[in-house]
Design goal:
Strands 1-11-6-7-8 form a five-stranded parallel beta sheet. The chain has eleven helices and eleven strands. The chain has two domains: about 170 residues, Rossmann fold (3-Layer(aba) Sandwich); about 120 residues, Rossmann fold. Helix 2 packs across helix 7. The protein is globular. It is of the alpha/beta class. The protein is about 35% helix and about 20% strand.
Length: about 290
Amino acid sequence: MPIAQKQGVNLYVKRDDLYSLKPGTALQGNKVRKLLPVLEAALEEVEPPVLLSFGGAYSNHLAALATAGAAFKLPVHLIIRGEEVDNPLLQFCAAAGARLEKVTRFEYRRRNDPLWVDGLQKRLAAEHKVGVDRIWLIPEGGTTEKGVANVGKLVEEMTKQLGTIPDYCCVSAGTGGTAAGIIRAADPTTRIEVYPALRGNWMRQEIEQWLNPTHTNNWTCVEGYEFGGYGKFPTAWKRATTGLATRAELDVPGLPPLEPIYTAKLFSGVLDRLKRGVYASGSNVVIVHTGGIY
């Protein structure tokens, strides 16, 4: 890439969008890495559990979980934020066999309330005619302890593919689970840059809940590239696509396929910092492409 060459920086992209259990679908990248442990556990059960999760109407996580449910014959129940919302992604989830339940934004805020969740699981157990223990709760975004640990394998792959330990590893964040997994597995000499897709200074706390004092503190949240907040982005980025997910294109040659919610913001931020000379000449900088291309 000319801009990287001009600055003397070695810029690489970890194409995790190509890591998929079902190529061409939402079940790719960080969604696979976070969901894989629970999917493997579910497939070992004699009686398939009902996979319950939460998300917004444009959630890659929900599309990935619905895809997994159809592929592996697992029942899926999705709680959708915003009762009036409908779009092709939700229509896809329903067509894939997932049950969709739209709730008000007020109700959705209670997704972390143990009493509310307990009542929800009991109701769904009755509806699905299974025991309460067969309703497996997957948090919003798919982030669990085992999922975070599984994301760490990405670091080993990246280092092996690169042939050296990178100086910088840059990743986008929605719930912070992928970033936490990378931070936990990274070499202390690698600087991790986390680019939140949402405004607000709460992302650091979200990530820290998955870390402990033994994990490297060599990471930072790079703010200022949210472009107005979650789901907001410059209209000039938007490109036509035959797929479900919105595509984005930055006016920079040589970039991989991007989507505007996470990866376009990430690449835009890294390239801007590259122009401003943030990365020293000779640095090895890796951008992690987490997926969303389907």
